[in-house]
Design brief:
The structure is a single chain. Helix content is about 35%, strand content about 20%. With about 325 residues, it is of the alpha/beta class. The strands form three sheets. It has an eight-stranded parallel beta barrel, surrounded by five helices. The protein has a four-stranded antiparallel sheet with strand order 2-3-1-4. Helix 3 packs parallel to helix 4 and helix 3 runs parallel beside helix 10. The longest helix is centred in the last third of the chain and has 19 residues.
Length: about 325
Amino acid sequence: MIAILRAGVPQDQVDNLIHWLESQGLKIHLSTGDYYTVLGLVGDTSKIDMELLAGLDIVQDVKRVSEPYKRSSRVFQPQDTCIEVGGAKIGGGNLCLIAGPCSVETHEQIISVAKAVKAAGAHVLRGGAFKPRTSPYDFQGLGKLGLEMLSEAKKETGLPIITEVMNLNQLPLFDDVDIIQIGARNMQNFDLLKEVGKLNKPILLKRGLCGTIKELLMSAEYIMSEGNEQVILCERGIRTYETYTRNTLDLSAVPTLKNLSHLPVVVDPSHATGQAKLVKPMSLAAAAAGADGIMIEVHNDPKNAWCDGAQSLTPEQFADVAARVRRLVEALAE
């Protein structure tokens, strides 16, 4: 249920209404816009008399929200959410470029790539310290050492860092990480979602390989229900009958998610296609579709990468993609 308040309502009256609603066992999500204020009521709203609430002088309208996801719904918060971290802005009309290697391999590698992507215009450095792999015999990341190398790259370049957590036990190691990534395989790891929901830092939530848009939003709801509203949604391709590409990049998810939710939407064309030659056209398509960010894998020596070299761009290729994406966004804004 949401209550839309009239314009110019004194703050003390808003506070009194919120206090009364909370006394009824509800959690209140407050969204303040330029022209009106929306109160999102989360919990058992059956005890609330809609006619009584709508009859209050400060209330303009009361509506029930049919979607099972509440806090992530655009009905609850009409304005786009903009998440700021380390000088980077994700959402709210800003296009954020996230770039870096699939996995952190050596000190020299991550520092070199970090400097290169920053020079090309990247806003956030990505790099895997813990890697979920289909085969137990494949390289699965440097773990704690990889996190330490990422922190060094952060100090060297000033770029905020994003990396994936795989289980609850790893969370204490992520204090210096600016954005925590929940990978596709963990999209419905509800214990992990609830735990990162207690943190005060942005969470990038990737869509599962077979996850529907509704399921992605419900997973975001798990995080937000614990109090952390800094959630970034990520479309990274879904599994279909097509086998030429690694996954099928569902770009229709971008405008759909932005219609349903106020949360920022990032696209990962690297994992979606699995082929470096497809990253540029899909990055441009993602920007044209309205994505708030693009996450691209960049390696200084893709042929000898320890992980996913086939989908990684060289720093020079990334610089070209970044420049073209910026020109496209500028053209679309005209």
